[in-house]
Amino acid sequence: MIYELKKSEYHRLKPILLSGFQFPEIYAVVNLVNSGWIVADDPVNPTSAFVWAEGLKGFFLIGCENNISFLEDLNHFIDHELNERLQRDVNGVEVAGMHQGWDDVIKQSYHCRNVKQSIQLIYKWDDHQAVEAI
């Protein structure tokens, strides 16, 4: 089952935020700096979550990518609740996985949704010079 977390429960995601790329957008939602909402597999001890970042108009999958019940429930959530939540016709959404393990899961679990993959280049800066693309 998927549960929408109350804003007062967002802090419970902090342990799973350490398991992948540190997207500042996720931290901003979890720390109530930016608007968004979160659904998770468990309201008390979440291990997987789907984070909507309002300012970015995109989603993040965080935590355990092998959580089969979460993935199945997320499919149901997408089919029956997402359109209403976004309050517009949804033909597509942008989703980023917090770590590389999510890439294959997204392709396999959502293949019937005509998933298209793209690459985002993120650069680390050191003394004003690009030193590495992640």
CATH topology: the name is Aminopeptidase
Low-confidence stretches: none
Quick check: average pLDDT? 83
Give the CA-CA distance, first to last residue.
Answer: 34 Å
Report the order of strands and helices: EHEEEHEHEE
Q: Roughly what percent helix?
A: 25-40%
What is the CATH level 1 assignment?
Alpha Beta
Structural class: alpha+beta
Radius of gyration: 15 Å
Let me know the largest β-sheet: 5 strands, mixed
Q: How many domains would you count in the coordinates? A: 1
**Arrangement of strands in the largest sheet:** 1-2-3-4-5
Task: Walk me through the structure.
- There is one protein chain.
- The protein is of the alpha+beta class and 134 residues long.
- The protein has a single domain, classed as Aminopeptidase (3-Layer(aba) Sandwich).
- It has three helices and seven strands; from the N terminus they run βαβββαβαββ.
- The protein has helices at 24-30, 68-86, 101-109, and strands at residues 3-4, 36-40, 48-53, 58-63, 95-97, 123-126, 129-133.
- The strands form two sheets. Strands 1-2-3-4-5 form a five-stranded mixed β-sheet.
- It is globular and about 50 Å long.
